[in-house]
What we know:
By secondary structure, the chain is an alpha/beta fold. The protein has helices at 23-31, 66-71, 73-92, 97-107, 122-125, 152-162, 183-186, 214-226, 240-251, 278-289; strands at residues 34-38, 111-116, 131-133, 136-143, 149-151, 201-205, 229-233, 256-259, 272-274. Helices cover 34% and strands 14% of the residues.
Amino acid sequence: xxxxxxxxxxxxxxxxxxxxxxxxxxxxxxxxxxxxxxxxxxxxxxxxxxxxxxxxxxxxxxxxxxxxxxxxxxxxxxxxxxxxxxxxxxxxxxxxxxxxxxxxxxxxxxxxxxxxxxxxxxxxxxxxxxxxxxxxxxxxxxxxxxxxxxxxxxxxxxxxxxxxxxxxxxxxxxxxxxxxxxxxxxxxxxxxxxxxxxxxxxxxxxxxxxxxxxxxxxxxxxxxxxxxxxxxxxxxxxxxxxxxxxxxxxxxxxxxxxxxxxxxxxxxxxxxxxxxxxxxxxxxxxxxxxxxxxxxxxxx
Length: 300
């Protein structure tokens, strides 16, 4: 029987409670050397839902797994039909105050690095540089046969040409860019192959059930070792891909600070968890530090 990925966890009753005072986050940033680890929660104010928060997409939607995508042609058809529609919403999303605050902290020399679990590119659109995309990017496509990368916008054009009459209305858009469509809406959607070798195309993202490339993991571990503290923004830390860095920081005695309204799987390792919305919290933190947010962020 195929194992399904870990999609949820049950908070322990003895987890420390959240606070509404971000003073310890201010103190950590003042000291500098902060490594940021961001999750889907930082993009919700840009109109992209998260997985596990209130109204999160996992309550109605199971993300595509690598095993299903690679083994089932009909699963690929459903994925590309839904993702083709969802890509339009991602293309319209713009950075919010949380993304701009992170970029401003970096410009002021307060950060040692930025790791994001998101695939939406909004940190870069806000002006952040040297972003480690832990789970890849929806903006790129890779061929599973020849390994050639290509821009997502190029694939979007080819899919639009191959499916000129495809105009369904999605019930919702999910954090992985997958739109909620019925099988009837998917219909006979045509999937296009790699233009180089005719192989299977996949978005350059890490699906559930797929491993993050080991060199990328090691690079992130190095960033944790070199950081003074770890600041987690908008992640439930349910999956090990992000939680392992929180555990690493905690075991090394580095302060872990979390800003997330709901409890996280990493709370036991944290010095504090600020249970407030990210945009307003990071804007307030920036104000205390005298850091101005740049409202002229480039389009995503």
